[in-house]
Amino acid sequence: MTQDNFKEIQNLINRYHDLAERSYSQGIYTFIGFLGLSEQDVFWREEQRLKYAGYSLNGGCDNADRVMIRFGNAEELGYEVPFPIVCIHIAPVMQKFADDLSHRDFLGALMNLGIERSTIGDIKVGVKQAYLFCQDSMAEYICDNLKQVRHTHVKCNMVERYEMSEEEKPETVTVQVQSLRVDAVIAKVYQLSRERSLELFRAGKVYVNGRLCESNSRILKPKETVNARGFGKFILGDDFRETRKGKLSVTAFVYR
């Protein structure tokens, strides 16, 4: 770990503790912006020292990769404040002239507006369109200023509900494994060799439920979410069946 990385992590830890203490001492809710997986892992490592304040995580949709944290305990505070998350639908002005746009295309266009990454959550990309989750303080600015993604002119509208496209729905994959070791399941789901699967762990690219997974022998539990950077993520199903050869037949819901 470089000195710069160490400072960034320490600053983030301090930020978590400052927000938790302010929430607890002042009897208010406090929020931290959208966090990536590595930032969420820092939170989970500190969770035991932060839980006194109460907390919840939300990304605006089910199974979000990027989430905000809200400090505060609704039972103790006696009221609740919703997460300041807005969903924006981004669509081409003229569908027939639109490019096939990727997640990188949409994110690049947003970054070109000078927006901080922490104000932007998941970008759910469908056919020539996307749904963006962002902090409510940025929603109007994005709608007013995001006019083009690559060569495609777009229009933005805040919407009440996010509708998953067919392209975003997970693929159901059934594999046979010797055990529910996370490295074995990853290798089968993504059709990797054992060595290639182990490389992901050595490079710190595997997260389970938002936590960095450093043990490749960790046993997965039903409905846990596994992110393998560079490959996508999957949710382990809860329907296990032993084959006649003594292996486990398991189902994974894979998001490419």
Could you provide a short overview of the structure?
The protein is of the alpha+beta class and 256 residues long. It contains 7 helices and 15 strands. It has 3 domains: 3-77, Ribosomal Protein S8, Chain: A, domain 1 (2-Layer Sandwich), CATH 3.30.1370; 85-165, 2-Layer Sandwich (Alpha-Beta Plaits); 170-255, Structural Genomics Hypothetical 15.5 Kd Protein In mrcA-pckA Intergenic Region, Chain A (Roll), CATH 3.10.290.
Describe this structure in words.
This protein has 256 residues and is α+β, with helices and mostly antiparallel strands. The protein has three domains: 3-77, Ribosomal Protein S8, Chain: A, domain 1, CATH 3.30.1370; 85-165, Alpha-Beta Plaits (2-Layer Sandwich), CATH 3.30.70.330; 170-255, RNA-binding S4 domain (Structural Genomics Hypothetical 15.5 Kd Protein In mrcA-pckA Intergenic Region, Chain A, Roll), CATH 3.10.290.10. The protein has helices at 3-26, 37-50, 74-77, 103-111, 136-145, 182-189, 194-202; strands at residues 30-35, 55-58, 67-71, 85-92, 120-125, 130-135, 148-149, 152-159, 171-177, 206-208, 211-212, 225-228, 232-236, 241-242, 248-255. Strands 9, 10, 11, 12, 13, 14 and 15 form a seven-stranded antiparallel beta sheet that branches. Strands 5-6-4-8-7 form a five-stranded antiparallel beta sheet. A hairpin with an 8-residue loop joins strand 2 and strand 3 (67-71). Helix 1 (3-26) crosses helix 2 and helix 6 packs across helix 7 (194-202). The mean pLDDT is 94.
Count of structural domains: 3
Element-by-element helix/strand order: HEHEEHEHEEHEEEHHEEEEEE
Radius of gyration computed on alpha carbons: 20 Å
Strand content: 25-35%
The profile of the biggest β sheet is: 7 strands, antiparallel
Compute the separation of the termini in Å. Answer: 30 Å
Relevant CATH superfamily of the largest domain = RNA-binding S4 domain
Report the helical percentage. Answer: 25-40%
Number of helices: 7
- Could you name the ranges where pLDDT drops below 50 across 5 or more consecutive residues? none
Architecture of the largest domain, according to CATH? Answer: Roll
